[in-house]
Amino acid sequence: MNHKYRLEAKEEYDVGLEVKKTATDKAKEIMATNWWVLWILTLANIVLSLLVLQYVSNRVGELLDEVKTTAKGVVVLDYSGWTAYIDKKTIDSTSVGFKAAVTNALRFYMVKDWQTLSRNYSEKISTIEELEAKNPDLVEFKENYVDSSKEAQLDFLSYEKTLLYLMSTDNLPEKITASGVTVNDYEVKGLEFKMTMTINVNQSLYLMESDRTVDRAGKIDIVVSGKFDPQIGTPINPIGIKFTSLKPTFLKKR
Predict the structure, then answer these.
(1) Which of 151, 226, 223, 152 is nearest to 188 (CA)?
(2) 137, 150, 222, 224: which sits with the fewest CB atoms below 10 Å from its CB?
């Protein structure tokens, strides 16, 4: 009885081996018959990989060229539609161009006369609020060029108060026109600078006591300290000049 069971089990085992052999043989036959399909798929995969690699390489090259172009220069577009590509340069605070940027800002914003401040004598001004409301360029200078430090803000407030005082006492010249700028002293330390400059002017003033108008030359001396940082630049002040101290002299009729 046991002997018969062992024979039946052996037969089942042999059948299983035969099935497995048959499946393996069929797989080998399929591979042998269709080997060219495998090669085609492998070749297609290699070609696709090469194409993807080439595309990625080309795209990376294009992006690098764009980065180099952006880092090298900037496109300028003015209101008339004129465009130009300008190379970027490191800002040199010892250069003539940087000193000109400082002197031009002071010349443009701080040379003030009675005619300009009162809008051709049509406005009466008696407070700082009225002065700034009728002369938005003063606010523009304060917001873009004057440092937020207490000293700088007090210096600019003192400048505005002095303008008001000269107007109230009839001592501010009616007309002041800048004719030239001289830099007397200039020091640079890192991103900070100090400058002593003279703005030469022509002035026209009316003397009420003698009822006459007098034209004469004059000068405004300004001692400034400041710093610059293009990271905090604005469209009005692109290189980020900030005056930390402002000490101007004033022209007076008498």
Answers:
(1) 226
(2) 150
User: Is residue 131 exposed (0-12), middle (13-18) or buried (19+ Cβ within 10 Å)?
Assistant: buried
Domain ranges of the chain: 2-68, 96-248
Tokens of 39: 């090669």
CATH class of 96-248: alpha beta
Q: How confident is the model at residue 41 (pLDDT cuts 50, 70, 90)?
A: confident
Length of the chain measured in residues: 254
Which residue type, as a one-letter code, is found at position 212? Answer: R
How buried is 227 (Cβ within 10 angstroms: 0-12 exposed, 13-18 middle, 19+ buried)? middle
**Nearest partner of 190 among 163, 165, 220, 227, judged by Cα:** 227
Which residue, among 162, 225, 219, 216, has the nearest Cα to 189 in the 3D structure?
Answer: 225
CA nearest to 76, candidates 89, 67, 85: 85
The proportion of the chain whose per-residue pLDDT surpasses 90, expressed as a percent, equals 57
Give the pLDDT confidence score for residue 54 in this predicted structure. Answer: 76
In this structure, are strands 212-228 and 175-189 parallel, antiparallel, or unpaired? unpaired
Please name the amino acid found at residue 66: E
8 Å CB contact between 164 and 138: no
pTM: 0.68
Collapsing DSSP states into helix, strand and coil, what is residue 194?
strand
Tell the residue number behind the tokens 């002040």, with chain if given.
237
pLDDT digits (tens, 9 = 90+) for 109-144: 999 999 999 989 888 899 999 999 999 999 999 999
Percent of the chain as helix, strand, coil, to the nearest 5:
50, 25, 25
